[in-house]
Amino acid sequence: MTDAPAHGFDTLQIHAGARPDPATGARQTPIYQTTAYVFRDADHAAALFNLQEVGFIYSRLTNPTVAVLQERIATLEGGVGAVCCSSGHAAQIMALFPLMMPGNNVVVSTRLYGGTVTQFTHTIKRFGWNAKFVDFDDLDAVKAACDDQTRAVFCEAIANPGGYITDLDAISAIADEAGVPLIVDNTSATPYLCRPIEHGATLVVHSTTKYLTGNGTVTGGCVVDSGKFDWSASDKFPSLSAPEPAYHGLKFHETFGALAFTFHGIAIGLRDLGMTMNPQAAHYTLMGTETLSLRMDRHVENAMKIAEWLENDPRIDYVTYAGLKSSPYNKRVEKICPRGAGGLFTFAVKGGYEACVKLVNSLEIFSHVANLGDTRSLIIHSASTTHRQLTEEQQVAAGAAPEVVRVSIGTENAEDLIADLDQALAKATA
Question: What is the DSSP track for 156-197?
Answer without folding.
Answer: ESB-TTT--B--HHHHHHHHHHHT--EEEE-TTTHHHH--GG
